[in-house]
Structures are given as C-alpha cells and as structure tokens.
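Recap slide: Glycosyltransferase family 2 protein, sequence and predicted structure.
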Amino acid sequence: MITISLCMIVKNEEKSIGNCLESVKDIADEIIIVDTGSTDRSIEIAKEYTARIIPFQWIEDFSAARNFSFRHASMDYILWLDADDVLLPEDQGKLYGLKKTLNSSFDAVSMIYHYAFDDFGNVSLSFRRNRLVRRDKRFQWNDAVHEYLDVYGNVLDSDVTVTHRRINSSMGRNLAIYEKRMDKGETFSPRDLYYYANELRDNHFYEKAVQYYGMFLNCDQAWVEDKITACDKMADCYYQLGDQEKEKEAIYKSFSYDSPRAEFCCRLGFHFLNKRQFKTAAYWYRSAIQLERPIDGYRFCNESCWTWLPHIQLCICYFHLGDYEKSNSHNEIARTYRPADENIINNKALLEPLLEK
C-alpha cells in the first residue's frame, strides 16, 4: 500500500478547514498545513488533526507557498487540497481503495473536481485536476495566481471526486495581485492574460476584460481549451455591456477552434429567444441536446448546458410556436433534473390543461 502526505496552504479558513481535514484524516499518513498568516481559529482547528503546521511568509505567490508545502512531505505520494474542499463518504472509500491498489508506476492521479453547484445541489461546473502525485518526481507548481501543477508521465484518471464547498469569497484578491505585477512592469504570459481577463470579468470590469481576452486570443501558443472558454466569457462580457452583435461574434469565433459546444449553442438560442425568433432559437437549443459530450474531463463544462437548460428553453420555444406536446415533453425532461424548480412546475401546470384540449 502506498503512503500519502496531505499538503495544504491555508489562511483564515476556520469555517471550512475542519470539514476538509475530517474527510481525509483516515486516509492521509501525514498532514502538512502551511499557514500564510491566519488570524482566526484555523491553526487551532488544524492542531486537532496534525502537529505539522508550518508558517510561511506570504509573498503574493500561491505557487511558492504550495511548493514550500510539498518540500515538507515525506510519504510516497502527495495529495493536495484547498481548505474548502471535501471528500464525501463515497469518495473517501474510493480514495482509500485507490491507496491500497495503486500501482507505483503511476506518476500522478487525476480526480474529478465538482467545483460549483446550482440551487438544487446539481453540479454546475466540473473538470479534472491532478491531485495525487509521486513525491520523488518533484513536480513543481507554476504561476503566482491560478497556479497549476506541472505534471508529466504516467497519469491515472480515477473516479474519485473532490467536492468544492466555498464559504469565503476571494473577490478582488487575485485581481490586486495581477495589478501589482503589472505595475512592476512584469511581462504577462498568455496564461496570465487569460486569468487576468477572468479576474476583470469577475469583478465587473467588462470593457477591460474584453480587451485582455482579445490580447489572449491573439496568442498562438495558448491552450485551445482556454481560447474556447475565453470566447464564452467574452460573449458574457458583451452581454453585460448590452452589445448583442459583439456577443454573437464572440460565440461564432469559438467555432473556429473546435466543433460547437453546448454552451455556445445555448448562448445562441438565448440570443434569438430574446429577439422572439423562436424557430431559430429552437434550432440552437436542439443542437445543444444533440451534441456528443466531450470525453476529455480536463475541459471546463457548464453542466446545465449539457443537461436541463436547453430542454426548459425548448419548452418555451415550442410553447410560443404552438406545439404544446413538444413543449411539455422537453419540460418533463428538464423536470427529471430539477423536480423542485418552480419554473418547471409552473410550466407543467400551464401545459396540462392545454394538452387536455
């Protein structure tokens, strides 16, 4: 059986760190907490699970802190989590089983990351991350913000899921770090441009975000998946700015990188639905449900666009087109995903008497 070091960096996570550590305490052989300046009860709570709590002077560089935590690990493999991540009971069992059976020839293990949820507890955003890595490979973290672990070699894509339970908001923190770097005259990599644009968008600086998404899209060496996502986020910025034509241009630009994704088909459907062009809107929503979902789990997927959203929108389109049977059929499919959604329940109540007639 392999041994595992859990490495975490924390700051003021008293509301979540206990749940995180409780969910992995029986799996990790050692727990290393690198604290970057907590002033709340985070350290006190962490001491209930480990004595390996190491201070680190915060230099506004997440990779530096994570690499520091990795250097203190002593087991075969290193598992990394954030304080607001948890392993649900089913996934605790899966990870323990993996620990007992993992072939040491694997350099890394990726796990599914359920990052965001809708109001009904359904996963709304998921992707994969390399979570468990061989210590002797000395993999390094890169980039000061939105850091990534540079992994290579033999990687196992596991069925273990890490669940994100965000409590604290970091709004503005990362943007400030990027702007300090910019003030120092640092040259931004394509990846920096992309994530800086994301921070601008998240903080509602839509016009400036569009500018930096454009700069990123002009970089030849950028990852194509980030370019596709940048088109989606650029379209959202233009929607917020009320520029429907630019929004549509950003959507169509995504098609130059790969075949259409459900996210963009739903965006086009919504564009034409707002124009009350119900037939055209229905075409794009039908396209969304007919697409084959990408197998590559490292892509960012908006789960709603691949599940219930196009169906509830088709319910609206077909209602206005006078086809109540199709409208009801799609509403029922949406209801399988969101049985407590008041909009879907109201649609059902509206459609049933019309179908009886």
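The longest strand covers residues 123-134.
The chain has three domains: 4-164, 170-253, 259-357.
(End of recap.)
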